[in-house]
From TrEMBL:
<comment type="similarity">
    <text>Belongs to the CybS family.</text>
</comment>
<protein>
    <recommendedName>
        <fullName>Succinate dehydrogenase [ubiquinone] cytochrome b small subunit</fullName>
    </recommendedName>
</protein>
<keyword id="KW-0809">Transit peptide</keyword>
<keyword id="KW-0496">Mitochondrion</keyword>
<dbReference type="GO" id="GO:0006121">
    <property type="term" value="P:mitochondrial electron transport, succinate to ubiquinone"/>
</dbReference>
<dbReference type="GO" id="GO:0005743">
    <property type="term" value="C:mitochondrial inner membrane"/>
</dbReference>
<dbReference type="InterPro" id="IPR034804">
    <property type="entry name" value="SQR/QFR_C/D"/>
</dbReference>
<dbReference type="Pfam" id="PF05328">
    <property type="entry name" value="CybS"/>
</dbReference>
<dbReference type="GO" id="GO:0006099">
    <property type="term" value="P:tricarboxylic acid cycle"/>
</dbReference>
<feature type="binding site">
    <location>
        <position position="69"/>
    </location>
    <ligand>
        <name>a ubiquinone</name>
    </ligand>
</feature>
<keyword id="KW-0408">Iron</keyword>
<dbReference type="InterPro" id="IPR007992">
    <property type="entry name" value="CybS"/>
</dbReference>
<keyword id="KW-0812">Transmembrane</keyword>
<keyword id="KW-0813">Transport</keyword>
<keyword id="KW-0472">Membrane</keyword>
<dbReference type="GO" id="GO:0020037">
    <property type="term" value="F:heme binding"/>
</dbReference>
<keyword id="KW-0999">Mitochondrion inner membrane</keyword>
Length: 124
């Protein structure tokens, strides 16, 4: 557990490789998500790559920020907070992927024009 809390320093080579490969996954999944059609297997693949790569990459990176900018006395509680947010991020993305439209469609929806609501039928 201690190595997971100190993902930037205590993990050594394994966490360095995880950070590197999660970066590759993000770089590969992004164009896949952008250019794939709605609901396609490519889009679902990108969504599930994101669900792992985003929390892993951000967890290791935020631990480096904690190491660089916080005094030693504050690092322990901050690392617990980082781990908690990494878990919440993973669960949130997975919920969107499994019970919603998926991460890709959710983000693409930010650029779509809203569909106007139908006018209610007039009473006679």
């Amino acid at each position: 557990m201690q190595r997971l809390l100190q993902a930037d320093t205590a993990g050594g080579h394994a966490f360095h490789k995880a950070h590197e490969f999660s970066g590759y996954a993000l770089a590969g999944a992004t164009p896949l998500a952008i250019f794939s059609s709605k609901g396609s297997i490519l889009q679902r693949t990108a969504d599930f790559l994101f669900s792992v790569a985003i929390p892993v990459h951000s967890h290791i990176t935020m631990n480096a920020v904690v190491t660089d900018y916080l005094p030693k006395a504050a690092r322990g509680p901050a690392r617990v907070g980082v781990l908690g947010m990494s878990v919440v991020t993973y669960l949130g993305i997975m919920k969107m992927n499994l019970a919603g439209p998926g991460l890709t469609e959710t983000v693409k929806g930010l650029w779509r024009k809203p569909v106007p609501a139908a006018a209610p039928a007039a009473k006679k």
